[in-house]
Description:
Number of helices: 5
Strand order of the largest sheet: 1-2
Largest sheet: 2 strands, parallel
Helix content: 55-70%
Oligomer: single chain
Shape: globular
Amino acid sequence: MLGVGVVRTPTDAELGTRLVAVEQGVEQWLDEYRPEYVAVERVFSQHNVRTVMGTAQASAVAMLCAARRGIPVALHTPSEVKAAVTGSGRADKAQVGAMVTRLLRLDAPPKPADAADALALAICHIWRAPAQNRLQQAVALHASKGRTA
């Protein structure tokens, strides 16, 4: 782990202002750490559409910042992240935090819990990306053979 951070915005601020703050935080992080990949949690809604909309908008800002720099973006579902880190796609935040702490050999769980979630996402991507890349290459190879026949 090189670093982890969480961008916080005032809940009573105007949406545009909050998204600009997210963009500035992401850009600063990208400038400082220069990642090769960006992993983003795939957003979906089961119940609270309002919460999902805000999360989706912030996720889109992160994806845009990465794409603007030519950094590949990978999306992982919350259950994929939980399963990769804890072995269960239904793990709670405490379990995710505990496993991130153990896997990264940290002295204490990252605070706030969103930081632990971000690290879990990174761990998931590191572990899953090689298999996903091989699968994409196989699909592309199969497709190219189908076109040439």
